[in-house]
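Quick one, C-alpha cells below:
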C-alpha cells in the first residue's frame, strides 16, 4: 500500500507541476471585464485597507479603472456611467461594484501586477494538499486509486473551468475544505466535537459567500438536514448543532453584509443589477447548455455517488453526508437551471463540495472500520 500511495502521490505532484507551469504564463490583461473589476476591488483594498469596502466609482480618482478599460479597448473608458460590472444604486445614486468583497480582498494580499498567478497557485497547492490527505486516509488499493483519481481531477479543474472567474479559485478551496470538515462532522462521536465542527463548517461555507454570492445555496443541504433531523428526532443536541451552523454561516458572510450596507444601503440589499436578479425561467436552452457542458459530468458523478452511498449505508455518518449532498444538489440545480444566464462554472462549486464530502466520508468510514477490525483482532489474540 505504501508503494501505491507513493506512486499516486508522484502522479498528483506531476499534475500540480503541470498546472503551476501553465499558470506561470497567464496574463492579468486578457480583456475580460470581470477580471478588471476584481482587480479594481483589490486595488481599493490595497489603497484604502478596510475603506476598500466602499466601491463607489467616484473613488477612481487615480484613474485605475479607466486606464485598465482603455488598455483593453473599452470604447467609453472615460465615462463612469458605462463602466462594466458597476451597478447604479437608486437609493444613494452611487455606482458601485456588484461583486462581494472576498475575491478582491484575497487578490489584495499579493502585489499589484502579480496577483492572479499567486492566487491560483496558492489555491491549487491547498487543493493538492487536501488530495494528498485523501490518499493518506485510504486503506485499500481501490480507495487509494479513487482518492488519487479524484485528486488529479480536482487539481486539473483549478485551470479549467476555474480560470473562467477569479472568484472560483478561493471558492474551490472552500469547497474542498468544507468537504473534509463535513465528513469529519458526521463521523465525530463526541457531542463537543460535533458542535465545534458544525460551527467550523458553517463558517467556511459562510466565508465562501464572500467570493461568490450564489455560494449561499451551498448551505441549503445542511440546513435541510438539521431541520428534518430535528423534526424527526426532537433532540435538542441536533437543534443546537443547527443553530451553531447557521450562526457561524452568518458570521462567515459578515464582510458581504458589511459591503452591502456600505454600497447598497442595507446588509440585505443586493449590489447586483437587474440582469442577475431576474425571476426564474425554465428555459430549455439553459438546461441544455448544462447538459452539453463538462459540469454535467461532475453533477452526474455527484448524483450517482450520492445515491450509491445512501443505498449502501443504512445508518451512520455516511448516509447523513449523502442526505446533505442530495439536498445541496437539488436546491442548487433548481436555482441554476431556472436562472436565465449560463456560465461554464455556475454548478461546479456544489458538485465539488458534494464530491469532496462523499470522498472523505467514504475514506474515513473505511479507515475507522479497518482500525476497529485490527483492534478487535488484537483483543482476540
Amino acid at each position: 500500500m505504501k508503494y501505491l500511495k507513493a506512486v499516486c502521490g508522484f502522479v498528483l505532484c506531476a499534475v500540480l507541476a503541470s498546472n503551476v507551469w501553465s499558470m506561470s504564463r497567464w496574463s492579468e490583461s486578457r480583456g475580460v471585464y470581470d477580471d478588471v473589476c476584481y482587480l479594481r476591488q483589490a486595488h481599493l483594498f490595497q489603497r484604502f485597507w478596510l475603506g476598500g469596502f466602499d466601491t463607489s466609482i467616484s473613488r477612481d480618482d487615480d484613474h485605475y479603472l479607466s486606464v485598465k478599460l482603455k488598455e483593453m479597448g473599452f470604447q467609453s473608458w472615460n465615462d463612469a456611467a458605462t463602466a462594466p460590472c458597476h451597478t447604479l444604486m437608486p437609493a444613494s445614486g452611487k455606482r458601485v461594484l456588484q461583486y462581494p468583497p472576498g475575491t478582491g480582498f484575497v487578490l489584495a494580499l499579493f502585489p499589484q501586477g502579480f496577483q492572479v498567478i499567486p492566487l491560483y497557485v496558492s489555491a491549487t497547492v491547498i487543493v493538492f494538499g487536501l488530495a494528498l490527505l485523501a490518499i493518506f486516509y485510504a486503506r485499500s488499493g481501490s480507495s487509494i486509486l479513487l482518492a488519487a483519481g479524484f485528486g488529479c481531477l480536482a487539481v486539473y479543474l483549478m485551470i479549467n473551468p476555474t480560470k473562467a472567474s477569479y472568484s472560483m479559485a478561493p471558492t474551490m478551496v472552500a469547497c474542498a475544505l468544507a468537504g473534509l470538515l463535513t465528513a469529519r462532522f458526521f463521523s465525530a462521536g463526541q457531542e463537543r466535537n460535533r458542535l465545534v465542527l458544525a460551527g467550523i463548517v458553517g463558517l467556511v461555507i459562510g466565508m465562501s459567500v464572500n467570493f461568490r454570492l450564489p455560494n449561499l445555496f451551498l448551505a441549503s443541504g445542511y440546513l435541510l438536514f438539521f431541520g428534518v433531523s430535528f423534526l424527526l428526532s426532537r433532540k435538542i443536541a441536533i437543534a443546537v448543532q443547527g443553530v451553531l451552523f447557521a450562526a457561524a454561516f452568518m458570521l462567515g458572510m459578515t464582510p458581504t453584509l458589511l459591503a452591502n450596507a456600505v454600497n447598497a444601503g442595507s446588509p440585505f440589499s443586493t449590489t447586483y443589477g437587474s440582469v442577475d436578479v431576474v425571476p426564474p425561467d425554465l428555459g430549455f436552452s439553459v438546461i441544455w447548455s448544462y447538459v452539453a457542458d463538462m459540469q454535467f459530468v461532475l453533477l452526474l458523478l455527484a448524483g450517482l455517488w450520492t445515491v450509491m452511498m445512501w443505498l449502501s449505508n443504512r445508518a451512520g455518518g455516511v448516509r447523513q453526508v449523502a442526505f446533505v449532498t442530495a439536498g445541496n444538489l437539488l436546491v442548487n440545480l433548481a436555482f441554476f437551471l431556472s436562472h436565465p444566464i449560463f456560465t461554464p462554472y455556475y454548478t461546479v462549486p456544489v458538485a465539488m463540495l458534494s464530491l469532496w464530502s462523499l470522498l472523505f466520508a467514504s475514506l474515513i468510514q473505511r479507515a475507522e472500520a479497518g482500525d476497529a477490525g485490527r483492534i478487535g483482532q488484537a483483543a482476540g489474540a
